[in-house]
Amino acid sequence: MTTARETAAQGTRDLKALAEQAGRDLEDASALEILTWAAETFGKKFAVTSSMEDAVVAHLASRAFPGVDVVFLDTGYHFEETIGTRDAVQAVMDVNVITLTPRQSVAEQDARYGPKLHDRDPDLCCALRKVKPLEEGLTAYEAWATGLRRDESPTRANTPVVGWDEKRQKVKVSPIARWTQDDVDAYVAEHGVLTNPLLMDGYASVGCAPCTRRVAEGEDARAGRWAGRAKTECGLHG
Ligand code: SF4
Question: Rounded to two decimals, what is the model's pTM?
Fold first, then answer.
């Protein structure tokens, strides 16, 4: 007789194989085709995550799957413009925005670890305020989509359009992995997609306020994140 654990392990193996096959099959597909595949394959067990830097993937996903869940991590350290972008996305797009928050408020974290943990131990701060809440928030889903692009940084250069998220044991969909910044700009212009106002103010990548700065001409888009530190990723995509 097959145990529940064996059935779950088989399910995980099946999902992983499905993801790897889809990654090969959909490598040349359009972003909309990739998201349509995800919507048809996973239905309500599929969600899009958005940092609210722009709403491009959320917009694409709403075309493939009206009413799709769009998961936003509110770390407590966001710029007002980012929260405003989230509210505008919920108001004007056919999506269901779900806001995840860390277990501790910033004040509670300060009391436990001391103030400005982001300056002293950003890996721990990201683990508490991003990685853990996302892990918990995604438990209801089998697949999630991100806005990762291969041209953003060397660490993202091999991002598959569909792959296996080993850490969370889920299918990870990156429908605009092959896009360039010009492709994003063209999509935004063509569809009038909401973007974070900070992108018009010298920021090329928008994260938490204490860990984000404007970038200079010629710097790569993520150079303004954790500037001056070896850290380049928050751990959500590792
Ligand atoms: Fe903390 Fe900075 Fe990570 Fe935000 S980006 S969770 S403020 S370390």
Answer: 0.91
Give the pLDDT band (50/70/90) at residue 228: low
CATH architecture of 10-197: 3-Layer(aba) Sandwich (3.40)
For residue 83, report the distance from its CA to the centre of ligand 1, in Å. Answer: 16
Angle between helix axes 31-42 and 4-25 (nearest 10 degrees) is: 160
- Report whether 68 contacts 89 (CB < 8 A): no
Position 153 pLDDT exceeds 70: yes
Q: Is 211 annotated as a binding residue?
A: yes
Looking at residue 184, what is its pLDDT? 96
> What DSSP character marks residue 210?
G
Q: Is the CB of 73 under 6 A from ligand 1?
A: no
Q: What is the pLDDT of residues 79-120, one digit of tens each?
A: 999 999 999 999 999 999 999 999 999 999 999 999 999 999
Write down the catalytic residue from 55, 89, 161, 234: 234
User: Is 32 marked as binding a ligand?
Assistant: no
pLDDT, mean over the chain: 92
Helices in the chain by DSSP H: which ranges? 4-25, 31-42, 56-64, 80-92, 106-113, 117-120, 122-126, 132-137, 181-191
Q: Structural domain boundaries of the chain?
A: 10-197
